[in-house]
Write a structure and sequence with these properties.
By secondary structure, the chain is α/β, with parallel strands linked by helices. The chain is 31% helix and 22% strand. The protein contains 20 helices and 28 strands. The strands form six sheets. It has a seven-stranded parallel β-sheet with strand order 8-9-7-10-11-6-12, with helices on both faces. The chain has a six-stranded parallel β-sheet with strand order 13-23-22-14-21-20, sandwiched between helices. The longest helix has 17 residues. The protein is globular, with a radius of gyration of 27 Å. About 2% of the residues have low confidence. The structure holds adenosine-5'-diphosphate and zinc ion (2 copies). Adenosine-5'-diphosphate (ADP) binds next to helix 7. The site of one zinc ion has 8 residues, from loops.
């Protein structure tokens, strides 16, 4: 045996320098090791977890330089072929190496090489944990903490689908092989009910199949998980979200990767979980920006879900009240089938929406007379209202009335936000200035740092100030708040949501955490303060996002059946009441709005009509970042193929030109052809790799913001 020719394997590692690394297959693994196995390999003086891409090919390195694989992680499930295809696709599409996609897809505990002192294998421990508790039971226990919620009618015993829901379900059940359906249903139209019926039928058809349901923010929508476990009490369900502890995450991920969990519900990273028996995918709230991964490899989980479905030849459903313009365009081009749910499932009407001119409103919170009267009426009737403002903290900036000083963050192109820290108790409030970009906080100066004036004033209002103002306006009311500051305290967000569901709060103030998914049964009125932030923003997607956010938050109002509650009301305060976005919003006319936006994008040469890549650079000085990008632009033009339509723009500072003391600039590339763009980027990246620079740069495909 010792004379046998050595066998080599190509192993992907999460190391950005090469697509794979050559390793020798040790004798004891010869004949056993296969592609898609997980292994431990030596790297430098340490070890790494890697994914075997190929066994038996010729090595690129000289054989005597090649080290041997340390061990096969026998307890790790061998990934399935379609999953590796997805990884390879993502690597090509986002111009990264397979290991940079595959390894971060593993939970941290499972991708960390064991230390010398570690007892047993991380996979075995995770499997033992998931088997002992049962992922489903663990979820049920977690859900048991969510108490006292008004149980929607459809829980447990299924309701009768309405005709639109039935038609949508029939279309989905008829789908064979790869297909993309866009379930375009207004808020409260019963989309979730359709997904659950479909999932139940698929899982019953094949007793080993799995379904993946991607959701934006499950930590804050326990209702969904609750509904699912009520509907599928005997099924192993794995819920994967970012708020899990590492051990739980590993256990649940493994129950999914082993094929034990039949239904996997997860946030964006779940799209990269290897599910061996995946039969269908649902992407709920498919327009949601949180489906974009913004660290490491910047991918779109929605786009990858569609690719995964096509690679496996299975159906995928994208659902939303306000589909992404890209998805809507695919409907218009006939690539996606649209299934419409134009009515609310409970028979409730969509809320009546009023656009109120907020110019010249007195008071820091800026509640208009109309808003105040409506809220007072709701309180009087014992109903609930929700006040939405997309800005946390007390006030977005502190100012000096005498010299004009503003609380600029010294390290960022942004103001430090005034926050009330600690309790609201009388006299007990303490304030600090915090930057929402670099996170740095400082004490509030007693006097103006520029002129010594003692009269520093907060300008404008965030959630904390609105809350304070509402307490003064409505002294008897029970008022709660929900934003990221509240949610950072363990259990605090759930407590606010539970109280609101249970009716022990009259008013809740908050950010978009309140906008998504919640099925508040007693909410009569939504007031949107300062809807204008997104209206004239530099980013081309801002109006699309604003329309989606306002539709979502409005959709929380008046959801209960007509006999149970009156029609909901929404008041949107704006200083630009004549803006066409508001007319479309008021008419609940997504299609008209989306078609008009598509036309604008076509004329302006923006996605989805053109394809973008964005090169971002970060350096100590702006000139350095811009200089690097100028050089990048120069090398981009060197190898330009004749006849290709690639447009390389000039380098510019980013809208947030400085964060944490680092200057940031960007260079945009666009093309009417996706293929041409990718060919260009491949050649360009090779040249960029040869530039020596201290500048940190990263290329993003299909950037979300430019
Ligand atoms: P969406 O996902 O579109 O927001 P949901 O599926 O959450 O809508 O449904 C909204 C509400 O309507 C829920 O309380 C749900 O229980 C209820 N519901 C759904 N379908 C029906 C139906 N066919 N008949 C009565 N109520 C329904
Ligand atoms: Zn001053
Ligand atoms: Zn800062």
């Amino acid at each position: 045996m010792s004379a046998a020719a050595p066998i080599f394997a190509r192993v992907a590692l999460d190391i950005p320098i090469a697509p794979w690394f050559d390793y020798l297959v040790p004798d004891e693994l010869a004949g056993r090791l296969q592609a898609r196995d997980w292994v431990l390999v030596p790297w430098g003086r340490g070890r790494r977890v890697g994914l075997v891409l190929e066994v038996g090919g010729p090595p690129e390195l000289a054989p005597e330089k090649i080290r041997a694989i340390a061990s096969l992680i026998a307890a790790a499930p061998r990934a399935d072929a379609a999953w590796l295809e997805l990884v390879n696709f993502a690597a090509r599409y986002y111009h990264r190496h397979p290991g940079e996609i595959a390894l971060p897809a593993l939970p941290r505990l499972l991708r960390t090489p064991p230390t010398a002192r570690a007892r047993g294998c991380a996979f075995e421990r995770a499997r033992a944990r998931s088997a002992a508790a049962g992922a489903a039971a663990a979820d049920a226990a977690a859900l048991a903490t969510v108490t006292a919620q008004a149980a929607p009618a459809a829980d447990g015993e299924p309701v009768q689908l309405n005709a639109d829901q039935q038609a949508a379900l029939d279309a989905l059940l008829a789908a064979e092989g790869f297909s993309v359906h866009l379930l375009h249903g207004i808020t409260g139209s019963g989309k979730t009910e359709v997904y659950l019926r479909w999932i139940a039928r698929l899982l019953a058809r094949d007793s080993s199949s799995q379904v993946l349901m991607l959701v934006p923010e499950i930590a804050l929508t326990p209702q969904l998980a609750q509904r699912v476990s009520a509907r599928f009490p005997d099924l192993e369900v794995a819920v994967l979200h970012s708020a899990l502890g590492e051990a739980d995450r590993a256990a649940r991920w493994l129950s999914a990767a082993d094929g034990r969990a039949r239904l996997v519900i997860g946030t964006r990273f779940a799209v990269l979980a290897p599910l061996p028996a995946l039969a269908a995918i649902v992407v709920d709230e498919e327009h949601d920006p949180s489906f974009r991964q913004q660290e490491g490899v910047h991918y779109s989980a929605r786009d990858l879900a569609v690719v995964a479905a096509s690679l496996r030849g299975i159906p995928v459903v994208l659902g939303s009240a306000t589909p992404a313009l890209e998805s809507w365009f695919s409907v218009r081009r006939g690539r996606y089938q649209v299934l419409a749910l134009p009515e609310r499932a409970t028979g409730a009407m969509l809320p009546n929406l009023r656009i109120v001119d907020a110019r010249g409103v007195p008071g820091p919170a800026g509640l208009t007379e109309a808003g105040r009267i409506a809220m007072a009426g709701v309180l009087e009737r014992g109903e609930q209202s929700l006040v939405f403002i997309n800005r946390r903290g007390f006030s977005p900036v502190l100012s000096c009335q005498s010299c004009g000083w503003l609380s600029q963050c010294p390290d960022c192109s942004a103001y430090r936000v005034l926050h009330r820290a600690g309790a609201r108790a009388k006299g007990g409030a303490r304030y600090l200035l915090q930057c929402h970009h670099c996170g740095a906080a400082s004490n509030v100066p007693r006097t103006c740092p520029e002129c010594g004036n003692v009269d520093l004033q907060p300008l404008g209002a965030g959630t904390q100030r609105i809350e304070q103002e509402l307490i003064a306006l409505f002294p008897g009311a029970r008022i709660g708040r929900l934003d990221r500051d509240v949610a950072s305290r363990r259990g605090a967000a759930e407590q606010v949501l539970d109280s609101f569901h249970a009716g022990t709060l009259d008013i809740v103030v908050g950010t978009q955490m309140l906008a998504k998914g919640h099925d508040f049964q007693r909410l009569a009125l939504v007031v949107v303060l300062d809807a204008d932030a997104g209206l004239y923003a530099a980013d081309f997607r801002a109006p699309e996002r604003l329309f989606a956010t306002l539709t979502q938050v409005s959709g929380r109002a008046g959801r209960a059946a007509p006999g149970v509650a009156p029609r909901g009301e929404v008041i949107v305060q704006t200083r630009y009441p004549e803006h066409p976005l508001f007319a479309a919003l008021q008419a609940h006319d997504f299609r008209g709005f989306a078609d008009a936006l598509l036309e604008e994008r076509r004329e302006a040469g923006l996605p989805p009509f053109r394809y973008l890549a964005l090169l971002r650079a970060e350096a100590a000085e702006l000139d350095e970042a811009l200089g690097f990008l100028a050089e990048a632009k120069r090398v981009a033009q060197l190898g330009a193929e004749a006849g290709t339509e690639i447009m390389v723009f000039d380098p510019v500072p980013m809208p947030m030109a400085r964060i944490a003391g680092r200057a940031r600039a960007q260079l945009l590339v666009d093309s009417p052809s996706r293929q041409q763009l990718h060919r260009f980027v491949d050649a360009w990246l090779a040249r960029l790799g040869e530039l020596t620079t201290r500048v940190r740069w990263q290329l993003e495909i299909d950037p979300n913001e430019i």
